[in-house]
Specification:
single chain; mainly alpha; 0% strand
């Protein structure tokens, strides 16, 4: 898809709409089973808020009375940094869970990049796209 809505596995997989829905359901089930995931999101949100607040106070001391557009720029920066951080966490924590669920449904995909390995030779030891070592299904 795109950077804003990344694919976790190859879109060419012959999964029906119901299969994809089941993959999402099973992935979220595993996501919430790991308490560290929710903790990471909370820590990130708190850290971004603390950093933004301290930066805003320093900015106000240097400028004096901020204009309305200072507030807009500061708000946009906070949203962008928060979204980018949460997106990275999603790629590092959520995507591997989704790939494992698809792998357990019987599709031979790479656990690192999500590529469907249907055309790769049986004796291949690495993924042709990312070079990650292949694991048996």
């Amino acid at each position: 898809m795109s950077f804003l809505a990344p694919d976790y596995y190859d879109r060419e997989l012959p999964l029906t709409k119901e299969d994809r829905k089941e993959v999402r359901r099973q992935t979220w089930k595993r996501w919430f089973a790991q308490r560290v995931n929710l903790s990471l999101y909370i820590v990130v949100i708190v850290a971004v808020n603390v950093i933004a607040e301290s930066a805003w106070r320093a900015f106000k001391r240097g400028v004096g009375q901020p204009a309305w557009w200072h507030w807009v720029i500061a708000g946009l920066l906070i949203v962008i940094v928060l979204y980018a951080t949460l997106l990275l966490l999603q790629r590092w924590r959520f995507a591997p869970l989704a790939r494992r669920v698809v792998r357990e449904q019987g599709f031979n995909i790479c656990l690192k990049c999500g590529r469907w390995l249907k055309d790769s030779p049986r004796d291949a030891t690495t993924c042709p796209r990312c070079g990650a070592p292949m694991e048996s299904v």
